[in-house]
Specification:
The chain is mainly α. Helices cover 53% and strands 12% of the residues. The strands form 2 sheets. The chain has a 3-stranded antiparallel sheet. The radius of gyration is 27 Å and the shape is extended. The termini are far apart.
């Protein structure tokens, strides 16, 4: 099976656009730019001679190249070294016209970041950077009952359709023509966070769309509620069961040892 010339042209266009995005994002940093292009050419976007004739796999690589280019342009920024008034080296962020910075003034007007040497000196002198301090992380309860209570009180993230970028590609693997000849592989991109999931668990496109949203919501829950998500609670529940089992076994062994000691007397 050969790939249509229009699809090959689309692949070349997507790759050229990715190269332009890397040139804009890594401007002035030639080693990083060369390393990124080599990584894309030899690993991330590479296809063997058989896969190059598979339209489904070529479409997947095209979509991946587009997503990588968009991420580079909107979500990746470089830090440049600048000289502060005190003579100490500092670092500032370089934004481009495509950088997705929203309306947060603390991002747009972010002050130069002090170097490690400067930070150590300030620590020795007892001074700290308080203007843009990172808020302390919420402590995760170690007790299972408290963790369960915190899990119920957590704020579950909302999955809005306008924040999603959905695409469909041909499936792969076992399943026959219902998998390999239909575009039932659902790929979702959550644009605000950049999280991406793919679902091809069933032959039904509608079911895969539903499952993909469920998986994406679980990922968002882990990001917004670290240590308190549904998956974290299930693992904590399993650990609590193991703890209770070990406790009962230890208690039973102790009681049995005491009984044997009494019988021996």
């Amino acid at each position: 099976m050969s790939v249509a010339p229009s699809l090959r042209a689309a692949a070349r266009a997507a790759y050229r656009d990715l190269l332009k995005a890397s040139a804009s994002t890594f401007a002035g940093d030639e080693p990083i730019q060369k390393a990124f292009r080599l990584k894309m050419r030899t690993e991330t976007l590479a296809l063997d001679s058989t896969a190059r004739n598979d339209a489904g796999q070529v479409e997947e690589k095209i979509q991946l190249a587009k997503e990588l280019a968009a991420t580079l342009r909107r979500n990746v920024v470089q830090a440049r070294r600048v000289e502060a008034h005190s003579g100490e080296p500092s670092w500032s962020l370089r934004f481009t016209k495509d950088t997705e910075i929203g309306d947060n003034s603390t991002i747009k007007d972010f002050p130069p970041v002090q170097s490690n040497r400067r930070a150590r000196r300030m620590e020795k002198s007892g001074t700290t950077l308080t203007d843009h301090a990172v808020p302390p992380e919420t402590a995760i309860p170690r007790n299972f009952s408290m963790l369960k209570k915190a899990h119920k009180q957590r704020k579950v993230p909302e999955l809005r359709e306008e924040d999603l970028e959905e695409s469909f590609v041909r499936g792969s693997g076992p399943g026959g023509q219902s998998i390999n000849k239909t575009e039932n592989n659902v790929q979702l991109l959550h644009k605000p966070t950049g999280l991406r999931v793919a679902c091809q668990e069933t032959r039904s496109l509608a079911t895969n769309r539903m499952l993909a949203r469920r998986h994406l919501l679980e990922k968002l829950d882990k990001v917004y509620n670290p240590g308190l998500s549904k998956g974290d609670l299930q693992r904590a529940k399993q650990n609590e069961r193991e703890r209770q089992r070990r406790k009962k076994a230890k208690k039973k062994a102790k009681k049995q040892a005491e009984q044997e000691a009494e019988d021996g007397i």
